[in-house]
Amino acid sequence: MSTATQTNLGDKELMENILMLEKGVCDLFMHGTIESPTEDVHKAFCTALNSSLAMQDTIYERMAEKGWYPTEQADQSKIDGVKQKFSAQMSN
Fold this sequence. Notes:
Elements: H1 3-35, H2 39-65, H3 76-91
């Protein structure tokens, strides 16, 4: 295996770890926001959450640019089925 391939695999794994850690941070800040006892604490957690969400988005974009986080286009019939399911639930 070439050095370039080894570096790329290491970079990919590093980015995956950073993304997972950032998702965990977002989860903690979200719970802090929800559970905040005062408005000041709520605002502090909310600000931190928004910053972490932006960072998570940036990490995802970089990974997607490199092909490390491929996504698939959802089938329109599946989207329509989910919409119908939730529309029916909301009308009950």
